[in-house]
Each structure stands twice: as structure tokens, then as C-alpha cells.
Design a protein that fits this description.
seven-stranded mixed β-sheet, seven-stranded mixed beta barrel, 30% strand
Length: 550
Amino acid sequence: MSENSSPQPGLPSPRVTRKARRSIGWVWLVPVVAALVGLSIVWHTWSKQGPTITIAFQTASGLEVGKTQIRFRDVVIGTVKDIRLSDKRDAVLVDAELTKDAEALASDGTSFWVVKPRVGYGGVSGLSTLFSGVYIAADTDLTDLRAKPSKKRFLGLESPPPIHNDRPGTRYMLRAPDLGSLGPGAPVYYRRIQVGMVTSYKLDSLGNNVDLEVFVDSPYDKYIDESTRFWNESGIDISVGADGVKVNTQSVASILAGGLAFASFGRSHEPVKPGEVFKLYDSHLAAKLEPEGVALPIVMRFYQPARGLKIGAPVDFAGMDIGIVSKVDLDYDIKTLKFFTRVEATLYPERLGPIYSEIVVNNRSPEEWAQSLVRMSMRGLRAELRTANLLTGQLFIVLEELPKTPKLSAPPKAEFPFEIATVVSDDLNQLQAHLANIAARLDKIPYEEIGQELNGMLKQIKQLTASLDKNIVPNLAASLAQFEKTFKNLDALVAPGSPLPGDAEQVLDDMKRALQSLRGLTDALQKQPDSVILGRKTQSYSRENLGATK
């Protein structure tokens, strides 16, 4: 077939078409989508990422990079990213990254500490870290957690704070001459109920006193006012007073770790002023000795022995303790040339209760109180010593109006300290005389002779005991052995197979027959008494007798 030959008739002619070109542009969507996903992940991570802070600790015990968490109220708010030494090698710097929603914690007022098992005043804490590992806890005094971060370096606490900032209550400052056995965590009591604790302490600016910060929980903080006094309740307080021996303590924790207590004195319930510092007293008695409400200082002179009168003894009026003895001294009266006991005390009229409210309509001045005491003294108000406890010999003072007592030659001065006249207590003198008489009689008892006689008696008893052991006891043992042998022989005689029971039965039969014969003889003598002399008569039965019988 040549190139110029035409196609054969009847065959179809060929159709020529162009193939479409394939597009590969959609392949670039895969990396674009991957890039977008990566960017979204990066954006999500960056948006959740908070600030990075540095916390300085003394040691890094238990901390691990990438594992140790930072928690606030048991919510994870960050993770430790790096641990390194400081430039001076005096601390461990922990770099931690906070979450975005906790970035406000990176500011002043936030504290960090490592939570691990600890044993303190309040007991054992942090036991859960034995299984989960240690973690860093955070606490803050912020009220708005939406604030922006403002701090990046923090000094970590070596021990957890006693009180968290979200705990309801009030902080107060106390001042004491020394710390004693108190420390952070020591309990604070009110009416023997633990209502708070000591949070911290430090020296004042001059270094003369110790300032303690205490925290009182709500709602107990409402019982603290201007009249409140704090005192030390550490250990055991043993005192001997008018009521005998007293042992005071709050709890076992206060004995071991120390503690504080407080109460209100007086009727003033004014709120505490901002920045006020309370005085810490050594004991409850020392707190009571301070003026309470209206304080009236008085002075008394006792011209009699006052050996049992001690500081803190009560001053009684109408059966009510209205004062406390604050000082007892020996003094000399130049006019009378006699020694006397000078006693200073403080009266608290508010202790009279409702009577005080009726007396005091308005605020009475000291001059008005002094005039009232002058009038009462002219009516016979006197001070007298009385015995409070026979065993301890403690004394107390009684204020009493004695109309029969000699009147004062001149009114006392209406000034404070007010001097109240005294009387000699006859009861006290009689008691002392009786005690002296008893002591004199006890001295007359011949204790030495009684002791010698007792020694002689003990020697005789010892000799008697020895004689009993040597003589009587062996003889008594031989006698008991003989008694035992006798009883054995008696048992052999009365045994069922022995001849004694049969002989005894024969004897009893003979005795029975003899008794029967004796009984017949007795009956015969009753019928014929003369038979003993004439003999026994035989009865004849004649015809006459028979006929008479018929």
C-alpha cells in the first residue's frame, strides 16, 4: 500500500482527540493543613502558658524537674521546669511555670513552701506526699485573681504558715518580756476552748521585748475588746491561796508546747483600736491584779501578825470578792513605836454587779468615790483579817460595817489611796491561841519514852515469837500427832467388823431387861408397900369372896 492510496470504501475514518492535562495543586493543601494544626497547638499552648517565676529554697529535697507540681487549694497551677544553684551557692533556685489562669499569683502577698511529711504542734501533716510525692503549695492574700503578674522572684518558706490567708479570723499583736516556751503553732484558748494559735514572733525595734502575732478564729474574735487581757498558760500553774492548793492548766498541748489564754475584765466592750498591742501577762493571777474598770486603791494598817496574807489574796465585802491584795509590807509607826503590817489593795466596784449599775447613774469621779468611802468609814466600815484555810494558814481581808466599833476621832482624808481603819480579829487571835495550846500539849508528849517502850515491847514480842518457835510449836506438833493416832484407833473400834458394836448391842439389851425388871418392882411396891417387910401376899379365893364377887 502506497502513501497516496485512498482508504478503502466502507471503512470508518479514525478520530483524533487531545488528552486532558492532570493538575497537582491540591497536594499543597496537606502541609498547609498540618501547619495550621501546628499553629493552633502552639497558640493553645502559648495562650495557656503563664509567667515563669523563680523560687529560692534552702534545699531541693524531693523536687524533680518536670514532675513536681505547684498547687493552690489542691489545684495544679504550675510545674517545676528547672532546678539550679544560686550564684553564691547559698540557695537552690527553682524555676516554675504557672498556668495562665493563675498568673495573678505572681505578685506580692503570695508565699510558696514545700509540702512533705511534718510533725508539729498541731499533729502530723503531709502524709499524702508519701504516695504522691512532694509538691510546692502556694497561698496568697489577693482578693482579685484577675490581676496582672507583677513579681518573678520569691523566697520560699522552709515550713508551712500556721494560718492560711483565706481562714476567717483576726490577727492581734502581743508584747512580752521574753518568749518562754511559746512558738508558732502554740494554741490560744478562751474558756478552755482552743480558738486560735500563735503565728509568728520577733524582737521589737529596740530588742527589749518580744512581739508575738496571734490569730483568733471567727467568730471567737468578737470576744476581744479593749478590756481583754492575754496571759501565758504554758506548763502547769500550781498556786496556794485562800481556797487551798490549785493546779491550773489548759490542755496537754499547752503543757508540752506552751499556750496562751485570754478573757475580758470589766464592763468596757469598746472595739480594739487599729495597731493596738496587748500586754502578755505571766499568769492569770497577774492579769487579774491589773485594774479592772473603776479601780480604787486602798491602804490598811494591821497591828497583828499577818503571816498568811499573800499578794493576790481576796478582799471580801458582804460575801463578794471586790478587790485583790497587791502589796504586803512591814512598817513602823513612829507615834506608837510599834511595828505594823501595811497592806495595799485595789477595789473594783464593778464586781458588785447590779448594785453597781444602780449606784452609778453617771460616771462618778474619784473624789465622789472617796467621799462615799469616808461616809462608810464614819458609819463603822473596818477591815479585818480572817482565816481562809486552816490547813494552809492563808488569810484574806474582810470589809464590814461594825456599828459597835469605836468611832473614828476624825474623818479620814478623801483621797486615794484611801486608808481604811482596821480592827483586831478576835477569831484569829483565838485560833492562834488554840493552835499554840495544841502545839504546847504536843510538845509535852514524851515521844522519846514512848519510843523506848515501843522498842522494849517489840523486843519482848520478838523473844516470845522465838520461844514459840523453839518450845511450843514442837510440843503442839507432837500433841496433834497423838490426837491423830487416837482418832485412828477410835475409827478402828467403831468399824462395822469390830467386836465393839456387837458388845454394845448386848449391853443395851441387858440394860433394857434390867430396866424392865426395875419397872416391875416399882409397880409391885406401889400395890403392896408392906411386901418389903411382910413378904408378898398370895391372894386366896374362898367361897365368901366368890359369893361377894358375884
